[in-house]
Specification:
Strand content of chain A: 15-25%
Order of helices and strands of chain B: HEHEEEEHE
Oligomer: heterodimer
Radius of gyration of chain A: 29 Å
Helix content of chain A: 40-55%
Number of strands of chain B: 6
Number of helices of chain A: 5
Shape of chain B: globular
CATH class of one domain in chain B: Mainly Beta
CATH architecture of one domain in chain B: Beta Barrel
Number of domains of chain A: 3
């Protein structure tokens, strides 16, 4: 006579928590790193590095675009093709270059500023995923990931038995603290 | 271990290059019925909340979020802002100087006197001019396009 063996829920939970945890490492790093980057949007540009070079040059807005371009390119020693030019106002002239640089000249300040933009490759792509710019398929995948995170947090409550169980105060206070901190921000601050 | 590391590096490479050349955003633009920006801004009330398509050189892009870009008008010293909700479309900074088409709804933003003073003061500061707040005695309106589709041309 064979004895019917039941599912060991405790063991299954631990194994699922372990394997889903492995699966979530990559995405968690993407969201965590870009989360820090985007949190400090006011302090830095998480997508681009903007190099600025400033020079004083004496030019007049009565000069032709060709003369202005030549003077600006030689002053800043720029070796790029010009993509477009634009008069923002009678006092501000802009030159856009093929490789993404922009030169802005102020006739009032008699000063030019050349900006060269370089993308922060990894951050830019991480942020793109974090802000869901990819749309469509990424929305579904992000929902699955969010579901997995919910599973990880809830399954953690049933991983350990005994005195270090989250259901006893010795470690249970950590669970309470994790809920109290956001609650303070929601209801008090 | 080496195989695992190679896989991770390949995945990172893929993540850093995926869609790097995506220069269309949202729905397709309606290139047939393009309105000149100068005509739009000459009588904006005729177009408010109506669907329009505009074209122009990109002369400014939101640096941090890519949530707006300015298109140069066909008239001198004029531009029109194409503004999206954060994340709906993200315009790359490298697009400055390229031509773009945008289809969307013209929106009016009404500024009261204080807002108009701050706005004009910021323009004057940017141009390096002195500005007298008292010179602004009434509110004003700004116009921008809320796009449904944008195409950045090469």
């Amino acid at each position: 006579m064979t004895r019917k063996q039941g599912i060991n829920w405790f063991r299954l939970n631990r194994e699922l928590h372990r394997d889903i945890g492995y699966f979530c490492i990559g995405l968690t790093l993407v969201f965590a790193i870009s989360g820090i980057a985007l949190n400090h949007l006011r302090h830095w540009n998480p997508n681009y590095i903007v190099d600025r070079q400033t020079q004083k040059i004496t030019l007049a807005n009565t000069m032709s675009d060709e003369v202005l371009n030549e003077a600006l390119l030689s002053s800043f020693n720029i070796d790029e093709g010009i993509r477009a030019t634009y008069w923002e106002s009678p006092q501000i002239y802009k030159v856009f270059f093929e490789e993404g640089g922009t030169l802005t000249y102020s006739f009032i300040q008699q000063q030019g500023v050349f900006e060269h933009v370089r993308p922060r490759h990894v951050f830019k792509q991480f942020n793109r995923l974090h802000l869901n710019e990819a749309q469509n398929g990424w929305i579904a995948f992000s929902d699955v990931y969010a579901g997995l995170l919910i599973f990880l947090s809830l399954s953690a409550l049933f991983m350990v038995k005994g005195k270090y169980s989250p259901w006893r105060f010795r470690r249970g206070w950590l669970v309470i603290a994790g809920g109290v901190v956001p609650a303070i921000y929601i209801f008090v601050l | 271990m080496r195989t695992l590391l190679a896989t991770v590096l390949l995945a990172l490479l893929f993540v850093s290059t995926v869609n790097a050349k995506a220069l269309t955003f949202g729905e397709a633009v309606d290139a047939k019925d393009t309105i000149k920006i100068s005509a739009l801004l000459a009588s904006p009330q005729n177009y408010v909340d109506k669907k329009v398509t505009v074209a122009g050189t990109i002369v400014g892009v939101c640096e941090k979020r890519g949530c707006w870009m300015n298109l140069a008008s066909d008239a001198r010293f004029e531009k029109l802002r194409i503004k999206v909700r954060d994340g709906d479309m993200v315009f790359p900074m490298s697009a400055k100087g390229r031509k773009a088409l945008a289809t969307g709804y013209l929106k009016e933003i009404k500024l009261n006197i204080e807002q108009a003073q701050r706005y004009k003061a910021s323009l004057a500061k940017r141009a390096g001019k002195t500005f007298d707040l008292a010179s602004v005695t009434s509110g004003m309106s700004l116009y921008q396009v809320s796009p449904t589709g944008v195409k950045i041309l090469d």
